[in-house]
Amino acid sequence: MKIFKYLSPERVDVLENQALRFTQANYLNDPFEHLPFVSQLVDEAFTNQLYKETLFPLLQQIAKRKLCIDDIPEEYRNAIPDNVKEEVFNYTIGEALNLIPAFHPKNLLNLFAIEGKDLGVDYSTLLKDSWNNKFGVLSLTKSNDNLTMWSHYTRNHEGFVIEFNPSNNYFNKTKTEKDLLRKLNEVKYSEARPKLTLIDSNIIEEEMLESLFQNILLTKSKHWQYEEEVRFIQILEDSDKIIKSDGQEIHLFGFDPSAIKCVFLGVNISTSFKNNLLLILNEARYMHVNIYQGVLSKTEYKIEFIEERVNL
Q: For the chain, how many helices (H) and strands (E)?
């Protein structure tokens, strides 16, 4: 597999500083980024099991104890009329919970299994917000001649495309065999948003995290299929440098020049920017990099590349 990064002229800093930005979901150009439909926090089977194995034994131990003032949250104690306090504290904890079913631990626990929309809670946005400051995405692609991407991501063909070496250690930093972080993953494209239950008893524990990553970080609408995206995801706290700009935190991860194979110049690249780019690429650290100039095909709607410098 080949991997490429489309860049506008302003992003020459990637080559100058040998660093790539890993972007939070809120700053990516797809509003559905990291936004599956999270219908439930947990499924009913999980809450029933948790109640049976954990809460019920605890309740059994205290159910026959008389209710006392310390069992009532301090902010609610004064709300109990004096003339009913004696009656209230004649109840056992078990009797009190049965009198107010809504506050019974089993019913409170079952609220987590109710669809968020029924509670007026947007679990999906809560999830995106919680992951937004944890994970950063480097978006790459398998193609270097996509006309639409040259227009969108290189400022109308004025910028450049970097080809990276997928075998370089930079793209292979997984810590476990099933680790989806720190390695290249192809994006899956779907007609519908994934519908998730965050803790699903139908999925074994070992596969649960993988399922979440696939559906949250690696699934996009089919509208983006033309991009043939390959993602590299890092934990933002591992970044080498953080820059604050226009209210954003920009997380940069450094790379070794050996990670770059080729650079392709846009068909509308300006002479001044091209000369500046070639000055950088002629430095000793980049002398191994092949350089190609993009030109318009005379017979097809495609871009062809002419050798500027090829290292044999």
A: 12, 15
From CA 134, how far away is CA 267, in angstroms rounded?
A: 37
Domain that holds residue 137: 3-24+133-309
What is the tens place of the pLDDT at every residue in 154-166? 999 999 999 999 9
My answer on whether 256 and 200 are in the same domain is yes
Tell the residue number behind the tokens 């669809």, with chain if given: 115
Say whether both 188 and 252 belong to one domain. Answer: yes
Which pairs with CB-CB distance under 8 Å and at least 24 residues apart come from 300-309? 301/147, 302/145, 302/147, 303/145, 303/147, 303/150, 303/267, 305/144, 305/145, 305/264, 308/265, 308/278, 309/281
Burial 116-139 (b: 16+ CB within 10 A, else e): beeeeeebbeebbeebbeebbbbb
Q: Domain check: are 55 and 159 in the same one?
A: no
Beta strands at 290-296 and 260-265: parallel, antiparallel or unpaired: parallel
The verdict on 87 and 153 lying in the same domain is no
Beta-sheet strand order (sheet of 290-296): 184-186, 229-235, 135-141, 3-7, 160-164, 260-265, 290-296, 303-309
Say if residue 87 is in the same domain as residue 184: no
Instruction: Give pLDDT tens digits for 265-294.
Output: 999 999 999 999 999 999 999 999 999 999
Residue 23: count other Cβ atoms within 10 Å of its Cβ.
19
pLDDT > 90 in the chain, percent: 50
Q: Which residue bears the tokens 């299994």?
A: 113
What is the rounded average pLDDT for all residues in the chain?
81
Task: Give the number of other Cβ atoms within 10 Å of residue 290's Cβ.
Answer: 18
Residue 116: pLDDT over 50 = no
pLDDT attached to residue 133: 83
